[in-house]
Amino acid sequence: MTENSKRREFLKLGMGGAVLAGAAAAVALSAQKAVAQSAENSLLRTVIDRGHLIVGTGSTNAPWHFEDEAGKLVGMDITMAKILAKGLFDDETKVEFVLQDPAQRIPNIVTGKVDITIQFMTMSANRAQLVAFPRPYYVEGVSLLSSPNGKMKSFEELTAGGANTRISILQNVGAEEAVHKVLPEAQVMQIDTQANVIAALEAGRVDGAAVDLSTVKWLVARNPEKYADSGFAWESMLYGAALRQGDPDWLNFVSTTFEIAMFGNDTALYDAAFLEYFGTKVPDRKTGFPSH
Amino acid sequence: MAQLIDAIVYAIPYLMSGLGMTLLVSLIVVVLSLVAGVVLGVGLIYGPLSLRWLIRLLTDSIRGIPILVLIFAVYYGLPPLGLNLSSFWAAVLALTLFKTAQVIEYTRGAVSSIPRGQMEAAKSIGLIFGQRLRYVIFPQATRRFLPPWVNGVTDAVKGSALVSLLGVVDLMQAINQVIGRTYEPMPLYLLGAVMYFAINYSLSSLSRVLERRYAYIKE
Predict the structure, then answer these.
(1) What is the DSSP letter of A37?
(2) Full domain range(s) for residue A170
(3) A230, A234, A285, B129: which could join A144 in a potential S-S bond, CB 3.0 to 4.6 Å?
């Protein structure tokens, strides 16, 4: 091979290499573009670019979302928002809370006023037609709050009272049946607000107040001299966050982050909140078979 | 009783910023609706036919819509049109629209109740339109305008509680926040009633002073 032909061969090789490299770069670029496109429509990308999360919630229902004595927004819902912020930015404070009425929970998601609603929302098939639910973060139930000074304190005593047992409950479709499911003979008193349902117990007008299990736990933990837990809950329901439909990346991110906070390697925030707001420790997690 | 007083004393500091918000919302709504309402009210009486029709359409449609619907319509209806107001301003705008429609009617009622002869007399001595309104019509119309308007102001203060529906923490929402923590509603409702009453009673007392001040024209 002459010197010239050698050089030509070398140039050919070089050109081939350049073409190959160019093609590879083009493939890499278009792949990058494709990733960017799929994520561009997702709230996940929007939230990360914005640098903080916008959460719709309330401020008037302990232990879910309420202002503590220092005027700071706290509660189980607020903790779930912080868990998300920690997952997104490694900084649990990067949350903006938009206070909303319970009636605004779905409209504010649909119109894009908030990235996610975390406001003691019961997951139901009806609602799932309008919004997407990530995995639930609490199993709520109906429970009976009683008075430590009353003559009927435990669930057994309330049952034994028969037709003499008086129970207050929030006015609602099926409220009477809900009570009669476990206390078939009890007298049911339907009252307008949750706070007044409890006020009836304090006033001695009823022997037990049928309220959310979380409310019972919260009140008994804070005021054991005023309230007692009758020790029975029924009618379980799932509490979940809600977000817009048609955004699998965002939905999956929230589910995964909640999953990790409840069962994975980063459970400190969830555990502390659970203990503080419901008065009990989270049951021990088992390693090995993923049973949750 | 001691417990009730304790609960009330405990709650007062938490309600102060809410009270401030209620006063702020009421003040903005009252001032904006007064200015807009009087201008449009005069337009409704003296304006050209097309303007009169337009204002009539505005007041009749706004007065025909429940204020609750108006609030949600502004909050959810404007963003698709490119105007994304915060909860606070959406609530203030809706309440102002509602109040403006009322002030237009108060103005129309007060001004058109002044006998035509007053306007004609003012013309005959050579006053131009602005002067006729300023020196002849408005001084007389003011005292007819005041009583219904002050009534409307107290309504605005009470109606401002609706802003809590958009998550704005006013006095009513601050009350709900404390109840949400303590689960003791009665002392808080009592306290809330006293606070709203104090604001509105001061307003009606002020209105009596104003009415006396403008009662100097004897008919």
Answers:
(1) H
(2) 140-237
(3) A230
Number of helices (H), then strands (E), in chain B: 9, 0
Residues A59 and A193 in one domain: no
Give yes or no for a contact between B107 and B148, defined as CB atoms under 8 angstroms apart.
no
Residue partners of A88: CB distance under 8 A and separation at least 6: A47, A48, A53, A94, A257
pLDDT tens per residue across all 219 residues of chain B: 787 888 888 888 889 999 999 999 999 999 999 999 999 999 999 999 999 999 999 999 999 999 999 999 999 888 888 888 899 999 999 999 999 999 999 999 999 999 999 999 999 999 999 999 999 999 899 988 988 999 899 999 999 999 988 889 999 999 988 988 888 888 898 999 999 999 999 998 988 888 888 776 554
Number of domains in chain A: 2
C-alpha–C-alpha distance, residues A206 and A198, integer Å: 9
Give buried/exposed letters for A139-172 (b at 16+ CB in 10 A, else e): ebebbbbbbeeeebbebebbbebeeebbbbbbee
pLDDT of A34 reads 46
Chain B residues with beta carbon closer than 8 angstroms to that of A71: 14
Closest CA to B32 of B104, B131, B133: B104
- The alpha carbon of residue B10 is apart from the nearest alpha carbon of chain A, in Å, by 10
CB contact under 8 A, B167 and A101: yes
Interface of B with A in 180-199 (CB under 8 A): 180-181, 183-186
In single-letter form, the type of residue at position A219 comes to: L
End position of a domain, from candidates A237, A259, A287: A237
Q: Could you tell me if residue A151 is inside a domain? A: yes
Same domain assignment for residues A48 and A84: yes
Give A96's strand partners: A54
We report the CATH number of the domain holding residue A122 as 3.40.190.10
- Structural domain including B16 reads 2-213
B14 touches chain A (CB under 8 A): yes
Interface check B176 vs A, CB under 8 A: yes
CATH number at residue B143: 1.10.3720.10
- Report the run of H or E that residue A145 belongs to, with start and end: strand A138-146
> Does residue A146 share a domain with residue A133?
no
Q: How far is CA A237 from CA A59, A121, A140, A191, in A?
A: 22, 10, 5, 22
> Could you give the ipTM of this predicted complex?
0.75
Alpha helices by DSSP H, listed for A41-151, are 43-50, 76-89, 105-110, 125-128
Nearest-neighbour CA in chain B from A59: distance (Å):
6
Residue B167 sits at the chain A interface (C-beta within 8 Å): yes
- Chain B residues close to A219, C-beta within 8 Å: 183
Strand order in the sheet with A166-170: A187-191, A166-170, A208-212, A138-146, A228-239
